[in-house]
Structure formats: structure tokens, C-alpha cells
Pyridoxamine 5'-phosphate oxidase (Mycolicibacterium setense), 422 residues
Amino acid sequence: MKQIRRLQEHARGHRTDLDSVLDAASVGTLATVVDGQPWVVPMLYARDGDRVILHGSTGAGALRHVAAGSPAAFCVTLLDGIVVADTLFDSTANYRSAVVRGHLTVIDPGEAAYALNLMSDSLIPGRSSEVRSSTKKELAATLTMALPITPDGWTVKVRDAPPELPDDAADSGGWAGVVPLRTVAGDPIPAPWIGTDVEPPESVYRLVKGS
Amino acid sequence: MKQIRRLQEHARGHRTDLDSVLDAASVGTLATVVDGQPWVVPMLYARDGDRVILHGSTGAGALRHVAAGSPAAFCVTLLDGIVVADTLFDSTANYRSAVVRGHLTVIDPGEAAYALNLMSDSLIPGRSSEVRSSTKKELAATLTMALPITPDGWTVKVRDAPPELPDDAADSGGWAGVVPLRTVAGDPIPAPWIGTDVEPPESVYRLVKGS
């Protein structure tokens, strides 16, 4: 029984496992160390091959600190279900999580437009082809960073299983199972100045249909 | 225009803002510092008045490190919508996030059963009244910790607004707005050994209906 328990929640070692977790979410938590203290901030991100692209405002002081080469850890978590077991002890969650560790680098201004397109298309697939390119002024106001994915610099943990069978048969008899959770998109809400005759673009339709 | 921009994404200073963000989620990212490096792990949690209760297995080595009094930061993020603006630069997300900073303490064994009930009821409201209490053996295998919420030890940031109006009128004309996101529960999936005649408990029905 205990062996089964240990098998159900475990580390995944294939790089494709990491990519699938990173590609399934849009927001993660960036952590670094500032004056010996842990410092965290939620950030939008996108994976670009062997690196994670993050971006924020150049006005964010602590982001500059991170960008200056401090060690960083970036954590992404997807809550996939609530595991209802026979006991409180065995009740838990099904989830996928990834941590990428390394040193952030600031993306070269020459590459920043590419990175910003990638970020936008990760959040709203296809959006970069519907609007104009970013201007130099916009790119200058964006701090775009990259966290390299190195062979030893990441971990993935997944729990995707029914509840444990109770250790004591006296605990069984009731219902046990999983309540799956998923994120869905609702009807698009036009900005207050948008007339009712203006149709949402293809990218927005895809976002709603794909959820 | 820039003043409006700064107003749309901002810190919230009322303690009720913090409580509403913490009470709306079940999983967060715990960060600490180990050997000068940032260390992060996703954790289930529940708020209990002026503290955040977290729990994990006593087998998790780094958790013990945190429990031993290291400084910690706990970050919760809810992604509420995708903000589709006229430009890539202004495209972003609506979200709620909270960070609680402090030093974790291990919860006294005498209080651990109370904390575990609270954790379970936060994940599955009402579940603790449907099953037996946790045994001494189960409580001994659970590391339950508390992160106190102090007046200066937290920050909340929220973006809940339509896209920015473009700085340049030439950029406007297309659709702009928000695609709202929410988490929904699907049909409960019984564990493989549960007969089709076994009805899910009230707590599971509430979980599915309430989502």
C-alpha cells in the first residue's frame, strides 16, 4: 500500500514533461533572494525552446534586481482536481507543477520584439498577426527577461490518480474519487468604448472555443 | 492616460482584500532561502484568521528547513481574465495576487487535528463532518505549519479592468476587451473500486454545484 502511495505522487524526469506543464499555463511565481530574504512575484511567461521568457514593467524595482543576475526559481502549478479520500489524511489534490532554477538574463533589445510577440501569442494565440508590431518606445518600457532551462535546473511533480485505498478497511465503504477542475473562458466582454457592431477577432474566438 | 493606467493595476491596502484573495484559492507557492538560493514549492493551504495554515509530508526535507524558522514568502495568484488590447504592449491579464511574508512555525501536535480539519474543509467544504477524525498516527505523519499574517507582512495586487485606451488614436478601431476565465468542477469520477450504487457525499455535490 505504501509503495502505491509513493508511486502516485512523483517526480517526472523527461524534458517533454516539463514542456507540457510550462506550455499549459500562462502565469507562474518568480522567486529570488533580496537581502537574504525570499522575494516572490507572479508573472506572465512563455516558453521559447530552452528558456522561459518573462516580462514586466521596467518600473518594477525588484525585477531589476532579479534581472541583474541574482539566482531565481520560477514555479508553475496547475490544480487539476480535488481528491476526495475516505480519510482527511488521504484527501489531497491532483496537480502538475514545474520549477525552473537558474539565473535570469535581460533580453537584448534587438530580440525584445520577438520575445514580446511570443508572450502575446502564448496568452492569446495568433494575436501578434492581428495588430501592428511593438514600437521602440513600447519595447523600451518593457523589461523582458529569459530564464534558461538547463538539464539539471528543473523539476516536475505530478499527481494524477484516484485517492489512496485506506490503510484500514474499517475506513472504506463511502464514496471516494476525484472532482476534476478546469479553467474555462466566458463570453468576451467588450471594452466600454467598443460598439456592439465590432466583432471580436479570430484570436478571441479561438481563446473561448479552445478553453 | 498614464494616470488611468497606473490606477488600473494597483496594490490594495485593506486586510479584507487580503482575506478575500487567500480565501478564493486552494494552492499557493511557498518560497524560502536555502544556502543562499531561492527555493519554491507549491502547497495546499487554508486561512485561519490571522494565519495561513500549510501542510505537507514530514518526509519533505526542505519543508523541515522552512519549518525550522527560516524566512518565508507565500504567494497566491488567481488568473481572472485575458485582457485583449489594441496593442501587444497593452495586452495583459486581470488577476488577483497576495504575498504573505514571515516566519513559519510548526503547529503544536495538540492543535494539529484542528488544523488538518480546517485544511480539508477549505479544499472540500464540510468534509470533516463526514469522516472520522484523524488518528494520532496520521497526525504524526503530517507536518502542519502556520505563517502568521502581520500588519506589515503582506501585499495584495489586483488588476480588474478593461484594456487601456491606446495612447495613439491610430491604434484604435478594432475590438478590445476582456476574456473572463474561471475554474469549474466537472462530474465527480469515482475511484476504481467504488460501485455505481455508491452516491457521492453532500460535500462533493456542493463542490460541483458551487463551482
User: Anything to note?
Assistant: Chain B touches chain A through 85 residues (CB under 8 Å). The mean pLDDT of chain B is 88. The longest helix of chain B spans residues 109-123. The helical segments of chain B are 2-8, 15-24, 61-67, 109-123, 136-140, 202-210.
